[in-house]
Amino acid sequence: MLDYLIVGQGIAGSVLAYCLKKQGYKVMVVDDNHPQSSSKVAAGIFNPITGKKLVKSWKVDDLFALVHTFYPTLEKELNANFYFPMEIVKPIQSIEEQNLFISKSGNPDWSGYVEVLFPETEYASYLHTEEGGARLKQGGWVDAKALVNAFCTYFAQEKMYVQASFVYEDLVLRDEYVLWHEYKAKKVIFCEGYNVLQNPYFSWLPLRTTKGEQLIIQADLPEQKMINKGVFILPKGDKKFLVGATFDLTEVNSITEKGKRQLTEKLEKLIRVPYEIVDHFSGIRPTVVDRKPIIGNHPTHTQLAVFNGLGTKGISLSPYFAQQYVQYLQGNSALDKEVMVERYYDKFYHKKA
Ligand SMILES: Cc1cc2nc3c(=O)[nH]c(=O)nc-3n(C[C@H](O)[C@H](O)[C@H](O)COP(=O)(O)OP(=O)(O)OC[C@H]3O[C@@H](n4cnc5c(N)ncnc54)[C@H](O)[C@@H]3O)c2cc1C
Fold first, then answer.
1. Does the residue 74 lie in any domain?
2. Would you say residue 162 lies in a domain?
3. What are phi and psi of 56, to 5 degrees?
4. Rounded to the nearest whole angstrom, what is the distance from the C-alpha of residue 231 to the centroid of ligand 1?
5. Is 234 helix (H, G, I), strand (E, B) or coil?
């Protein structure tokens, strides 16, 4: 009998299945290999300081300590390249912002993330940085598509991968285990991203489908740094750059003129050089109203569980919470209250009533 059957091999299912296997569990991963899954189109950026008010990302110290060890170790184990630490350049476009950065960079709590403030002359040839800018440390990106592809190869080699569409009606629940086709498992953990809304056992979860559109542009910009302000500009080699991303609450996964316009307007506020759009694509993020992952058992069927809701930060959240969840499953530690699925059980009972 399997210990865990994992449904979905995006970032969530991959990282969780890997962490479970490392603890000696028998695991099988089922995925339909959708080419436009969130993980296959994600920019994969991890950025410690976000938003206009320059706030530290939630749990950034814990999450980022792990990001910088987990992915490089994984690269060696999976024999693939997907982890790219990279300086993040944040242009400063007003005196207020400049004051904010000066106060933050002098604060020991922030100095690990803000490297140095630079004068406007430094990037003046290609960026609008009227008041200079800041360089952020500890950021970078993970090539999420390369990551899930490398995981897929690894799982296949380890004979723990089935490419199939998981049809929920085929799942048979018994008191102590589940059956799905020829597989018998103590527990199924659903990691289907936004598709969990089609899952009859978990469709009550308050997951939202947040579409993101992105562009690939060709431009004469520096290729060793990421630029982030309103949009990110991520070098992809060969003078090509990924520009993104929009946020649109819809389940329709398609590119639009509106999305393109939103991105180009922000881009033009940021860069001074000409550019050409060479591609435009979209994906759907599994986001949650309170912006926290959703982890744990179904309210009445304890053989069923979810690991989902990684939202806009799958790369930085997944290693930390997959490891925490495995510890929890082993009875060694608690889950953070903020991520426990129990916080939404009332939605299940409300829907049933
Ligand atoms: C445009 C865009 C930009 C993003 N940028 C970033 C970023 O810069 N940094 C960052 O950290 N995150 C980013 N994200 C978010 C990140 O992509 C998500 O947090 C992450 O991919 C979610 O992973 P997941 O495994 O939960 O879902 P998914 O990637 O959707 O994976 C679910 C998998 O399950 C499969 N599946 C679903 N249902 C079934 C079924 N019934 N049977 C079999 N298989 C099934 C799907 O095909 C898929 O392979 C971005 C997302 C988008 C869309």
1. no
2. yes
3. -70, 135
4. 20
5. strand
- pTM summary value: 0.97
Residue with tokens 């489908």: 209
15 lines ligand 1 (CB under 6 A): no
Summarised one tens digit per residue, pLDDT across range 100-119 is 888 877 788 877 888 767 77
Give the number of the atom of ligand 1 that is nearest the alpha carbon of residue 199: 41
Tens-digit pLDDT profile for residues 60-71 = 999 999 999 999
Range with lowest mean pLDDT among 87-91, 101-105, 148-152? 101-105
Say if CB 217 and CB 267 are below 8 A apart.
yes
Q: Are residues 296 and 185 in the same domain?
A: yes
Q: Contact, 147 vs 70, CB < 8 A?
A: no
Looking at residue 38, its amino acid is S
Q: Could you report the per-residue pLDDT of 152-206, keeping only the tens digit for each?
A: 999 999 999 999 999 999 999 999 999 999 999 999 999 999 999 999 999 999 9
Q: Say yes or no: 235 and 268 in one domain.
A: yes
Q: How many CA atoms lie within 13 A of 350 on its CB side?
A: 8
- Kindly report the protein residue whose alpha carbon is nearest to atom 40 of ligand 1: 166
Query: Is there a single domain that holds both residue 100 and residue 246?
Result: no
Measured distance CA(233)–CA(291) in Å, rounded: 24
Host domain of residue 193? 2-41+145-206+291-352
Are residues 215 and 281 both part of a single domain? yes
Q: Give the residue from 84, 63, 60, 55 showing the smallest Cα distance to 225.
A: 84
Q: Please, which residues bridge with residue 225 across strands?
A: 87
State the CATH number of the domain containing residue 244.
3.30.9.10
3-state secondary structure of 121: helix
Encode pLDDT of 26-42 as tens digits.
Answer: 999 999 999 889 999 99
| Closest-lying ligand 1 atom to the alpha carbon of residue 317 | 11
CA dihedral of residues 152, 156, 324, 168 (deg, nearest 10): 90
Q: Is 319 in the pocket of ligand 1 (CB under 6 A)?
A: no
d(CA 67, CA 17): 17
